[in-house]
Design goal:
heterodimer; A: 510 residues; alpha/beta; six-stranded mixed β-sheet; B: 316 residues; mainly alpha; two-stranded antiparallel ribbon; 4 strands; 76% helix; globular
C-alpha cells in the first residue's frame, strides 16, 4: 500500500514540556489508523502539527508529490494543510449554526463568480461531499436544525470538501449514540475502501478495535507502537502500551445499599417542561443508579429539571421522603443538598480564568464568610482538603482552573459539590475525554462516595462504565424511562438487555 | 516577585511613575509645587470613581453608557435641592447617592426583565437622562450652595486633597467588595462564566442588577465629588466622562467580557489619563489631540489584552 503521509521524528517543545519527542506516524492509503495514548501523551500536539496549527521544532513531514514520490513539506498554517489534502474534524464543533449545510461544507473555499457567491456551484460541491458519505441531507438546511450526529457528518463532509486524502477524526463519537457511531464508522470504512486514509483518535477502545486496521500508540511524546496491525494486539496489550505498566482492573469499594430507608431522591410519575413524562425513579443512600440512554433521550434534561432549571409539570419529587419544590440550583444545593456535576466541564462546570480555590469554594462562600467576608486562607484550606481526598494534582490553590488537565478539571468540578456537603449527586458523563488511568481512578472515587452513603444518579453513555459502577440501570428513551435492570456486572448480558430496551422499548426478563 | 513584575498593574505603575517624573522635569518641577500637585490629585478623584463605576458593570460583562450623564444628572439634582429647594447639604448628598443607585437599579431591572443588551438599555437611559437634565433644568448654573460642602471639596488632609482620599477609600471598598464579600465574588463568577455560575447556585440576574445598582451608586459618589470640588454645577457636567469611564478600566486591564477586574489597574490608568490631561493644559496642546491620544491608548490596551490572552491561553 502506498504511503500517503509520514511524520518522522517530530519534536515539539513547550516551556517546561517536551510534548512530542521524536514521534513517528505513517499512514497508508485505504487504512483506518488508530492514534492512541493517554491525555498528555502528545496526540493533540501531533494532530495540530499535521493540520498546520503548530510548527514542529524538529523532524519532518513527508507527503507524496504529484509524481507520487514523497516530498518534505512545511505546513505553515491550516490552509496549507488543507491544500495538502489533510482534512480534520476536531473534537469541538466548528460549524456556524445560522449557515446552511452547503455553506458550512464549503466555508474555506466558497465558490465565487464575478466576485459573488456562486450558489449553484456551492450546492453542487456540497452535494458531491455529501454523496461521498452517502448522506441524504438538504444542502440548504441551516445547520442549527440538524441533530448532533448529522452535524458530525457535516463536519466530515467539510473536511473532505478540499479533496482530502487524509482525514483526521478527533474523538468523533464523543457525543454520538452507539447507533450513530456505528453509522459513522460505516462511512469511515467506505471512505477507506475508496482510498482515503483515516486517523482515528478515540478513548473508546471497543470502537477502535471494531474499526481500525493499524495503530500508533503515543506515550510521553514517543511512539511506543508504530503503525502495527491492530489485529495482532489484545485490548490489554494496547492499554499496557498506553499506560506503560500492567493495567489493573479496578477494585471498587464494597457497598451495602440501605434499601429499607427512605430513598434520598425519589421521582414519582414526574413530567417536566422539557417533555419528560411519567418518570418514576428512586436512588437510595449508598446506591449508584445509572441512567442510560441515547444522546437526546432526555437524561441531562431530567437532571436540569430536578435542579429547577426547567418546570416539573406533574408528579412529585421527594428528597429523603419529603416532597421537594426546587425552584433553582441554589434551592437544590442549599435546601436539599443535591449537586450536579455537568458533562460540559469547560462550558458549565468551571470558571476557567479563576483560581482552583474559587472554583472549589463557589458553592460554600456563604458558609465560609465571617462577618460577610471570605478569607483567602479559609478558601485555600478547603482546596487542600479536597485536593487530598480526590487526588487533584495542583501546583497551588491559586492555579487557574483552565491550566489543569481534563481529569483534574473534572475533579475540581466535582469538588465544589463535595464541599457543599451534598448527599445526592447527579453525575453527568463523568469520564468523557478522560484517559484510561484517570477514568479508573474516577470510578474508584465515585464508588467511594457511594460507599460513604451518598446517593448517586449516574448519567453515562459509556456502557462499560455503567456496568462497572451502577447497582441498577434505568434506561431512558424519548424522555421516558423504558426499563430498569438490576446490574449483575456481567457486561455481555447487561449490554444485551440495555440495548434491547433502547431499541424495542422493552427488555428481556432478567 | 517575578509574578509581580509580570502583572499588568506593575507595568502601569512603572509607566505612571516614569510619566509623572517626565512631566515634572518637563514643567521645571512646577508639577511638584503644592498648588499644582493639589490640583492634580483633586481632579484625579473624579476619573477614578467614574472608572470604577464602569468597572463594576464590566465585571459582569455589561457596559453602562449612562455613567457620565448620570453623574451630571445627580450633580444637577443635588444642586437644585440645595439652591432652589433650600435643603441642607447632607440631604442633597444622600439624595445624589440614592438617585444614582436608583437609576442603576432601574438599568439592571430593565436588563433582566426585557433581556435587552445592557449596552442598548443604558444608551436609552443615558439619552433619557440627558433630555431630563436639559428639559427640567435648562442651561442654568447652580452655585453659591452650602459653603460647608464646598470647603470639603477644597480641604486637604496632610497636604492631600480630601476628595482624592475619598476616591481612594471608595476604591479600597470596591476592591474589598470583589475580593472578600460573597456578593462580590458572585459578580465575578457570573461575569466569568454565567453557565457555571447558574449551575453553582448563583443567580445571574441578581448579579446583573447588583452590578448596575453599584455602578449607579458610584456615579452618585462621582456627582458628590463634582459638586464639592467644582463649586458650581451646570447641565453640561458629565458629557465628557464617557470615554474616561471606559479608558480607566480598559487600560487598567479589566476584561471586557467580564469576570476579571483590577481596581489597582483602574486607579493607575485614571492617573495616567490625568497625566495626559495635565500635559495638555501645561503645554497648551489642542484638546482634540488629548482625546486622540486617550482613544489610541484605549485601543492599544484592548489589543494588548488580547495579545496577553493569546500568550496565556494558547497552550494546552
Amino acid at each position: 500500500m502506498s504511503v500517503v503521509l509520514s511524520a518522522e521524528k517530530l519534536v515539539k517543545t513547550f516551556p517546561g514540556v517536551r510534548a512530542l519527542d521524536e514521534a513517528t506516524l505513517t499512514l497508508t492509503a485505504g487504512s483506518v489508523h488508530a492514534l492512541l495514548g493517554e491525555n498528555g501523551a502528545g496526540k493533540s500536539t501531533l494532530i495540530k502539527i499535521l493540520t498546520g496549527v503548530y510548527r514542529p521544532d524538529g523532524g519532518q513531514l513527508r507527503l507524496p508529490g504529484t509524481d507520487g514520490q514523497p516530498r518534505t513539506v512545511q505546513l505553515g498554517n491550516p490552509q496549507d494543510a488543507q491544500r495538502a489534502g489533510i482534512g480534520v474534524v476536531h473534537q469541538e464543533r466548528n460549524l456556524i449554526p445560522a449557515f446552511s449545510v452547503a455553506e458550512n461544507i464549503c466555508l474555506q473555499h466558497l465558490p465565487r463568480r464575478a466576485g459573488l457567491l456562486d450558489r449553484a456551484a456551492l450546492r453542487a460541491e456540497a452535494r458531491r461531499c455529501l454523496d461521498l458519505l452517502d448522506l441524504d441531507l438538504d444542502p440548504d438546511l441551516p445547520v442549527s436544525r440538524l441533530s448532533v450526529a448529522q452535524m458530525q457528518l457535516v463536519e466530515i463532509a467539510k473536511a473532505l470538501s478540499a479533496d482530502s486524502t487524509v482525514l483526521l477524526l478527533d474523538e468523533p463519537t464523543a457525543s454520538l449514540t452507539n447507533d450513530e457511531a456505528d453509522r459513522l464508522y460505516g462511512i469511515v470504512r467506505r471512505l477507506s475502501e475508496r482510498g482515503h486514509a483515516t486517523v482515528l483518535v478515540s478513548h473508546k477502545l471497543e470502537e477502535v478495535f471494531a474499526v481500525a486496521d493499524t495503530v500508533t500508540v503515543l506515550r510521553d511524546g514517543r511512539s511506543v507502537a508504530e503503525a502495527e496491525p491492530l489485529a495482532e494486539h489484545s485490548r490489554e496489550e494496547i492499554v499496557d502500551l498506553m499506560v506503560g505498566r500492567a493495567y489493573q482492573q479496578v477494585h471498587l469499594a464494597a457497598r451495602t445499599v440501605a434499601a429499607d430507608v427512605q430513598p434520598a431522591l425519589a421521582l414519582d410519575h414526574v413530567a417536566t417542561g422539557a417533555g419528560h413524562h411519567d418518570v418514576t425513579l428512586d436512588v437510595h443512600p449508598g446506591e449508584i443508579v445509572g441512567l442510560y440512554g441515547l444522546v437526546g433521550a432526555g437524561r441531562s434534561e431530567l437532571a436540569k429539571a430536578l435542579l429547577g432549571l426547567d418546570r416539573i409539570t406533574a408528579g412529585e419529587v421527594r428528597v429523603h421522603g419529603r416532597p421537594a419544590r426546587i425552584r433553582d440550583v441554589g434551592d437544590a444545593l442549599h435546601r436539599y443538598r443535591i449537586g450536579y456535576v455537568t458533562e460540559n466541564r469547560k462550558e458549565e462546570g468551571l470558571f476557567l480564568d479563576q483560581t482552583v480555590a474559587r472554583n472549589t469554594a463557589v458553592t460554600v462562600w456563604r458558609r465560609l464568610a465571617r462577618l460577610g467576608l471570605v478569607r483567602d486562607r479559609t478558601e485555600r484550606g478547603l482546596v487542600d482538603e479536597y485536593a487530598d481526598r480526590l487526588g487533584i494534582r495542583l501546583a497551588s490553590p491559586d492555579q487557574q482552573a483552565g491550566q489543569l488537565s481534563g481529569g483534574n478539571q473534572q475533579k475540581v468540578s466535582l469538588a465544589k459539590w463535595l464541599a457543599a456537603d451534598c448527599d445526592v449527586l447527579i453525575i453527568d458523563e463523568p469520564t468523557v475525554g478522560i484517559d484510561v488511568r484517570t477514568k479508573a481512578a474516577f470510578h474508584e472515587l465515585i464508588a467511594g462516595l457511594a460507599a460513604r452513603g451518598m446517593a448517586i444518579l449516574l448519567i453515562s453513555s459509556d456502557l462499560p462504565e455503567m456496568v462497572t459502577l451502577a447497582d441498577r440501570i434505568a434506561v431512558m428513551r424519548e424522555f421516558a424511562i423504558v426499563g430498569e435492570l438490576d446490574n449483575d456486572h456481567d457486561y455481555h448480558r447487561m449490554s444485551q438487555s440495555v440495548i434491547r430496551f433502547i431499541h424495542d422499548g422493552q427488555g428481556v426478563v432478567a | 516577585m517575578r509574578t509581580l513584575i509580570r502583572t499588568n498593574e506593575f507595568t502601569l505603575a512603572v509607566i505612571a511613575a516614569l510619566g509623572f517624573a517626565a512631566l515634572a522635569v518637563a514643567t521645571d518641577f512646577n508639577l511638584l509645587t503644592a498648588g499644582t500637585l493639589d490640583a492634580f490629585l483633586r481632579f484625579l478623584a473624579l476619573p477614578i470613581v467614574i472608572g470604577l463605576a464602569q468597572m463594576v458593570v464590566l465585571a459582569v460583562g455589561q457596559m453602562n453608557l449612562s455613567v457620565g450623564v448620570l453623574t451630571g444628572f445627580c450633580a444637577v439634582a443635588s444642586g437644585w435641592l440645595m439652591v432652589d429647594a433650600g435643603l441642607p447639604a447632607p440631604v442633597a448628598v444622600l439624595a445624589a447617592l440614592a438617585l444614582g443607585a436608583a437609576v442603576g437599579l432601574v438599568n439592571g431591572l430593565l436588563v433582566i426583565f426585557t433581556r435587552i443588551n445592557g449596552f442598548i438599555v443604558t444608551l436609552a437611559t443615558m439619552t433619557i437622562l440627558e433630555g431630563l437634565r436639559y428639559g427640567v433644568n435648562g442651561t442654568g448654573t447652580y452655585q453659591g450652595y452650602s459653603p460647608g460642602l464646598r470647603e470639603f471639596g477644597q480641604a486637604s488632609l496632610a497636604g492631600v486633597p480630601v476628595v482624592f482620599l475619598l476616591a481612594v477609600v471608595i476604591a479600597v471598598a470596591v476592591a474589598l467588595f470583589f475580593r472578600r464579600t460573597v456578593p462580590g465574588r458572585h459578580l465575578l463568577a457570573s461575569g466569568g462564566n454565567p453557565f457555571a455560575a447558574r449551575l453553582s447556585g448563583i443567580s445571574n440576574d441578581r448579579a446583573l442588577v447588583l452590578a448596575h445598582t453599584l455602578s449607579g451608586l458610584l456615579a452618585g459618589f462621582a456627582a458628590v465629588i463634582v459638586v464639592a470640588a467644582f463649586g458650581s454645577v451646570n447641565a453640561s457636567i458629565g458629557d465628557d466622562l464617557l470615554l474616561p469611564s471606559f479608558a480607566a478600566p480598559i487600560i487598567g486591564g479589566v476584561a471586557l467580557a467580564g469576570g476579571m477586574i483590577s481596581v489597582t489597574g483602574t486607579v493607575l490608568a485614571a492617573f495616567l489619563v490625568r497625566l495626559v490631561d495635565v500635559s495638555q493644559s501645561q503645554f497648551d496642546i489642542n484638546r482634540r489631540w488629548v482625546d486622540l491620544i486617550i482613544g489610541a491608548v484605549v485601543l492599544g490596551a484592548v489589543l494588548l489584552g488580547q495579545f496577553r490572552e493569546k500568550l496565556s491561553g494558547g497552550r494546552r
